[in-house]
Design brief:
3 helices, about 25% helix, single chain, 5-stranded antiparallel sheet, binds nickel (II) ion, about 180 residues, binds ligand GNR, alpha+beta, about 25% strand, globular
Length: about 180
């Protein structure tokens, strides 16, 4: 098990579309375990998608059980997820491990039904509302090379990009090594 490095905006690799998982074997399960360990290491992260760690396959993990007022399914591993039904709108602030320190409101579907496979390749259906639904949509966007900042205005996105690039320069020039992972809310 390992905590993996997270790619951060504006890294172009985050724009890559991920491939469907074809093989359900121990190698897949080991990668899923690493992905989960990486999610847990990002304080408060409610989800993670494989491409965030440079693994370009359609795997996401969501777990909103630590949040109040959520209808929780606990810890969900979704492989090759597809949204089959959706309705309503929900507006809420989102953060992303790949865009640390930025929290902005994004419009999503309030309810989604998702058809996917579990880590053993068995078909699963998830009915999600509220934060869980939002989180699934956020993670599924990563699989298509999309980030929540794409829903913001060009001006806001430019500002965020500049801030991230500056943060990266500062980290690169700092020898103290007190980088730390910012908390996601
Ligand atoms: O930790 C996260 N918080 C969050 C909050 C609102 C909506 C979506 C999310 S997902 C994010 C972790 C992450 O970057 N997943 O890709
Ligand atoms: Ni994200």
């Amino acid at each position: 098990m390992a905590v993996l490095d997270i790619l951060t905006y504006p890294d172009e690799r985050l724009r890559q579309a991920s491939d469907r998982v074809q093989r359900f074997d121990v190698a897949l399960q080991a990668r899923i375990d690493d992905l989960e360990e990486t999610r847990k290491a990002g304080p408060g992260a409610v989800g993670i998608a494989a491409p965030q760690v440079g693994w370009f396959e359609r795997v996401i993990i969501v777990d909103v059980s630590g949040r109040k007022k959520t209808r929780s399914h606990g810890h969900l591993i979704l492989v090759n997820p597809e949204i089959t039904e959706w309705d309503g709108f929900a507006m809420g602030r989102e953060g992303c491990l790949s865009v640390p320190g930025i929290y902005e409101s994004v419009r999503r579907f309030q309810h989604v039904r998702v058809s996917s496979l579990d880590r053993d390749g068995n078909e699963t259906e998830v009915e999600a509302f509220g934060l869980l639904a939002v989180c699934i949509q956020h993670e599924m966007d990563h699989l298509d090379g999309k980030l929540f900042v794409d829903y913001l205005s060009e001006l806001k996105r430019q500002r965020i990009r500049k801030k991230m690039e500056k943060g990266r320069r500062d980290t690169a020039t700092s020898r103290s090594g007190v980088s730390g992972t910012p908390s996601i809310i």
